[in-house]
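INFO batch 0412 | record 1 of 1 | parsing
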Amino acid sequence: MQAIETGRHEYRMKGGLKIFYLFFGLILCGVGIFFAVTFAQLPKAGVAALVGVAPMAIGIYLLALALRSRLAIDGTRFEVRGAFGEKTAEIGEVEGFRTISTRNGSYWRLQLKQGRGSITIQKWFDCDDLRAWFQQLTDLDEQDRKQLLEEIEQDQELGTTPEQRLGALAAAKQWNVGLFVIAVIAAAGLFAGGVRWRLPAAMVLALVPVVALSLLNTKPLLYALGKSKRDPRNELSIALLASGMGLFFAGMQTHFVSMMPLLPLIVVVALAFIAAFYMMARKGPRTQGFHAIVLICGGFFAMGLIAASDTLLDNARPAPYAAQVVNKHTSSGRSTTYYLDFDAWGPFSGANHVSVPFSIYQTAQPGDTVCFEVYPGALHASWFERVSCDAP
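INFO prediction complete | emitting tokens
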């Protein structure tokens, strides 16, 4: 903190973080200039010369953020300056503040009265003096927490005494944990269980969002989705993610000839999923976390459910095919995927490849024969699986 004049205090970005932003800002500006100059010298550079604009713009933003960021407090008035703009307000205009947590850190958001918007104060200004200044503002997160606990204490449907009603939160936590455990067991059964267990496991995973919707709609004081840290209710997002991701990753293990026939159904299910949670979870919080969870889970759930329906409900007799390996290759990212390459066979009119376990990849050689069974798909998206060539 630096005292500018009597009654006025100014807070700036701390030294280590400031050096970090300046360093990377300069590097990105240099990279942007290098690419812009290099591509501009090429014949018919055209749009390619604009490649340097993005890193240069990010670099300029980081430099401006490091050099201009400032929080100034002068009596009852405060001013927050960012990379390219600034906002000012009187402390009497502030309804309160919330602490917003993100993947990249957290910050304070000052909510102005009468719906006049908000002002963001970054945590890099944090110090004892600033925390003392925040004591005169209403902590909206804590206020919401106390109001929820009071509502729970007064809700006669949750028990006959305030103690019993608050005890319903602990019971709801056990149900929430149980729902998550069931989703995890069902996902494991879908992945590693035998053929007889895959359909029941998929049905259990498909029902988890239905149960979550019912809890959010009938017991909004006990369950929430995408809540803040200090919200006393039980968070259902973990069970919902386990359900959606379990279906999705199991479905993505299937070898589809093409998923295009499934895309319209995937879109319909995803929209229905999202609409159901926005309509039936009306009493829940509408935080950024809520929107992200509903959209992500909706996508995972729709793709996984439709893929599982196409394969697990397919009772048609498969068509057998044999194909010769022409080559093999790997694809590296967060993990390595192993592929065998083939020329045209069965449903494929041109070159194609199939992912296989490392043990198969290691022993397979060009010229080897690999056998497949191709199914039409219950939803008309053909899929296939590798089988032993010795099988009848």
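INFO post-check: Residues 1-6 have pLDDT under 50 and may be disordered.
INFO record closed
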